[in-house]
Amino acid sequence: SGLLSRLQTSAPTIRTLSSSKPFSQNIPSCLWKLGRLNHVAITVPDLEKAQSFYKDVLGAQVSETVALPEHGVYTVFVELGNTKLELLHPLGEKSPIASFLQKNKTGGMHHICIEVDDIKAAMTELKKKKIRILSEEPKIGAHGKPVIFLHPKDCHGVLVELEQA
């Protein structure tokens, strides 16, 4: 009965915590809504070795390599259940990933991608909030959906990709 009485005693504390003000109360309302984390992108110097690591060593489901010339990258997606990893490798000499690899020889985290329900509304509102967007219009991303990238200096050092859900 000692454990039961302790649980009964702590129950009001749990109820008090769960009935406190929701975190989102401090967030101003928007015309668009932030969704789930779609993927974390990792730049890799050797795409085949990286694919093999996630598939053969960790046992993950790994996609085929897809070339995205408009973005200057090859992409491979690693399924993780609750999200994905996107492996990036340079495609062409003008690839933005090539310059990233020059600075980070072994590769590393490149960007995070978060879904939004209305990318155009997000662009309009973010511009009003002085957040720089790296293109005038959304481009079609690896999932065949419109994407934009937010300047890392405006996002606390992180390159943020927003993707239309």
Describe this structure in words.
The protein has 165 residues and is α+β, with helices and mostly antiparallel strands. Among the domains are: 43-110, 2,3-Dihydroxybiphenyl 1,2-Dioxygenase, domain 1 (Roll); 118-164, no CATH class. Helices cover 28% and strands 30% of the residues. It has helices spanning 2-18, 47-57, 96-103, 119-128, and strands spanning 34-43, 61-62, 66-68, 73-79, 84-90, 108-116, 139-140, 146-150, 160-164. Strands 1, 2, 3, 4, 5, 6, 7, 8 and 9 form a 9-stranded mixed β-sheet that branches. The longest helix is centred in the first third of the chain and has 17 residues, at 2-18. Pfam families: Glyoxalase_4 (PF13669). Residues 36-165 form the VOC domain. Its EC number is 5.1.99.1. Methylmalonyl-CoA epimerase involved in propionyl-CoA metabolism. It catalyses: (R)-methylmalonyl-CoA = (S)-methylmalonyl-CoA.
